[in-house]
Amino acid sequence: MSRSDWKPQREGNVPVYRQIADHIKEKIASGQWPVGSRLPSQRVLARDFGVNRSSVVTALEELAAEGILEGRVGSGTRVVNDTWSLLPSLPPDWSSMVDAGIHSPNLSMIRKINEEEFTPRMIRLGTGELSPEWYPRESMGRVLQRVSRKIVSLGYEEPKGLLPLRQEISRYLASIGITAAPSSILVVSGALQALQLISLGLLEKGSTILLEKPSYLFSIRVFQSAGMKLTGFPFRREGLRMDRVRHARASLYYTIPSFHNPTGALMSEERRRELLASCERERLPLIEDDVYRELSLDGPVPPPLKARDSKGTVLYLGSLSKVLAPGLRIGWVVGPEPVIDRLADIKMQTDYGSSTLSQWVAAEWLAEGSYRAHVERVRKELRKRRADADRILRKYWGDWADWELPAGGFYIWVRFRKPLPLHRLFEQALRRGVLLNPGSLYDPGDRSHLRLSYAYAPRREWERGVRIVADLLRDFF
Amino acid sequence: MSRSDWKPQREGNVPVYRQIADHIKEKIASGQWPVGSRLPSQRVLARDFGVNRSSVVTALEELAAEGILEGRVGSGTRVVNDTWSLLPSLPPDWSSMVDAGIHSPNLSMIRKINEEEFTPRMIRLGTGELSPEWYPRESMGRVLQRVSRKIVSLGYEEPKGLLPLRQEISRYLASIGITAAPSSILVVSGALQALQLISLGLLEKGSTILLEKPSYLFSIRVFQSAGMKLTGFPFRREGLRMDRVRHARASLYYTIPSFHNPTGALMSEERRRELLASCERERLPLIEDDVYRELSLDGPVPPPLKARDSKGTVLYLGSLSKVLAPGLRIGWVVGPEPVIDRLADIKMQTDYGSSTLSQWVAAEWLAEGSYRAHVERVRKELRKRRADADRILRKYWGDWADWELPAGGFYIWVRFRKPLPLHRLFEQALRRGVLLNPGSLYDPGDRSHLRLSYAYAPRREWERGVRIVADLLRDFF
Ligand SMILES: Cc1ncc(COP(=O)(O)O)c(C=O)c1O
Ligand SMILES: Cc1ncc(COP(=O)(O)O)c(C=O)c1O
């Protein structure tokens, strides 16, 4: 159960513990905490209510005395009764349903990260997102104004998405060498949703997906939840070798050729050619996840693999999340029309299309010049941050770790000179207010990397975070 | 493959058929129509390109002569080669992948409807959506302006959705008798997505879902695609009887108590009490899909079942789609916190949350008074439309069909006095430019109903549509 925004009142003449007991009763009476569910720990309740732990303890004891709660050492406090109901009966067995569902839960560390990101003052050293400081508030204001004049209704949209947006995406793709008519483009709610649709729409249960190791794909559950297997090949700067691939009998090859998550690597032009040629030879479909393409910091990026794809081998993914704003939830998939048709049909079945409002805003951004200007500004800022990060790391972690600076994107893949208990490091850092992304999220066997991102936290915070972690690291070395 | 927006140029000196042939070559060369894929029919290509069929035939013949296309009577034209590539090789076997995916395709009639809705000048007699004329353009303009001042960044959001929106939803729910803290609420991209999350998150494969027959749920594939079974009980005005339910060993009960889709029925207060009590007794979780609640046309609606739910038996669904704008893609699920936590986790895994922009706009609408004013205006218009529809139906279909006017919502469930070949009627009407929603979409065995909606098409169009269908009906009676 998560953070509540209720707080007891200090001024009135009802004692705080009494207010807490009443609040919990109401949670139970309204079915929000049904009989059988477990309460958050005393520590968490005290934090959320903003009170001393002793007030929580008093309230819980009172409710236990009334027969409403039951506490057991080790397993926490449970709701056992709702005495005010006349016909005492049990609620549905939600907890076994929650466990029974088809889709696997997120990795517990990812769940923790998702939650802790919203703890105030947390220093986020690994967050894969642009700093909120760079949000282009004024341009967005102008875009919203223009868009509100253009929109004459916000109905359910065409299966593939708003046509004006698909036309703009088609034009943008042409600028990076990809020929794709609007009918070969599906608008999605971020590139993540594209992966989900591919998983549900194109693969049989038990299919194998090849990928680089480490990879972003190991940190999410989309494919595994649908019963797919991930087979990773060690990532060598240049991607992975096809000779070892042939034996894996895979259904799909997933790659992030530009500013790889988490390593930051940029695949060379030759390697791209080779990879595409091999996949063509093997008739192996390829997902090219290119969401970081625009964030090059040291000059031009080789053309996408998709630009050379004359056979329809590549499904190409793009997104506005990493350059403009993840909160728009706008991305795209590009591929052979029959495949796009199939994915569009499943998209209609899962959410009837992405927010039309977001789609209009995205179209307007792509259409007008200020998008280019925004990208340039972001790149400039990222270049500064990358240099700062390098300096800071050398100063505090230089004795224990190595890294290469990436040519673009957000990430530095820091390698410690010996294996570390990453989970422990994560927990300790969290207690000191620093959120880390351990390498094990991106490669289950990893014990010696952290994914840092220089994009999110402001320079000072970043330095403070690195210093705090240095204090912890000292004990491990 | 769907509508293209490319058109040949009339002015130049390249003949039209030549332009078409070149365009098709480019589609193939860029992998958009890979080797092995099937072209749209000559009729459809001619329509999409805006040319005579003879120009299409000439172009296809030329490409066949070049060995690029191959036509076979009955099975259409296929891409067989891309002669310009040096190493001729086959693309991935997409067509078998498209067939292999886990998620079932939409019902073909639904796919057809999704597509034809965007054919210009189509008269949509059954569309479950407010008329675009009623889109509150000015209020939305003001909301967007206010919102653009409030938004200071558009990052990834908390798993359960934007807190200010959840607070507004919590306040709105209180106004209809439901107690739910923001932590018991999950924001979703429309109520449809809530169903998808429940299907992936709470049910084992092979679970049975009980529902009214007919029901909206039969027209979508969310549960079936995840391997669930739907068991419908005939719908009698008042919902369905619990005695017959006990034997079905179901995992979930799905109901639309207010202005049911497709029948328009409103469940009485007594029946609601009974239903909830029975589900509590059976410990059977209940989904209350209440997306039409605000659209009452004849006075107050009984409180939601959720308002009486002290055990946490009910998952409650709401949405802004039917009252404000489906294009916002904003809805909500309310339930016991551990269940909401689980659904939020899966939501993060599928799309990292709904559009933050849409969430801000939704919060602003709910917070300010103009939402109420908008709802009142919509109700007034719907009342007029309902009366018009009744008059028009009596005039044109009175000899062949019966119906009851609903007390709210959009739908009239028209029953013909004898069974009809609904699929044929659908096809014939479509050819005359009228889109229908046959009863078989909502109950696979139905042969005598149409779901009409008085909400979408303007009065004149509606009348024209009904008249056109009357001409067709005459032949069946
Ligand atoms: C490689 C990669 N692909 C896809 C995504 C998903 O981005 P979105 O769904 O916001 O477009 C991310 C975000 O972390 C990513 O790193
Ligand atoms: C009963 C019912 N539930 C849910 C939905 C889905 O609405 P949305 O996803 O737009 O909120 C509809 C729309 O047709 C409906 O009729």
TrEMBL record, chains A, B:
Annotated CDD domains: AAT_like (cd00609), WHTH_GntR (cd07377)
Cofactor(s) named in the record: pyridoxal 5'-phosphate
Sorted UniProt keywords: Aminotransferase, DNA-binding, Pyridoxal phosphate, Transcription, Transcription regulation, Transferase
Single annotated GO MF: DNA-binding transcription factor activity
Annotated Gene3D superfamilies: Aspartate Aminotransferase, domain 1, Type I PLP-dependent aspartate aminotransferase-like (Major domain), Winged helix-like DNA-binding domain superfamily/Winged helix DNA-binding domain
Signal peptide extent: none
InterPro entries, alphabetized: Aminotransferase_I/II_large, HTH_trans_reg/aminotransferase, PyrdxlP-dep_Trfase, PyrdxlP-dep_Trfase_major, PyrdxlP-dep_Trfase_small, Tscrpt_reg_HTH_GntR, WH-like_DNA-bd_sf, WH_DNA-bd_sf
Residue ranges annotated for the HTH gntR-type domain, each copy included: 14-82
Similarity-based family: In the C-terminal section; belongs to the class-I pyridoxal-phosphate-dependent aminotransferase family.
Protein name as annotated: GntR family transcriptional regulator
Species annotation: Paludifilum halophilum
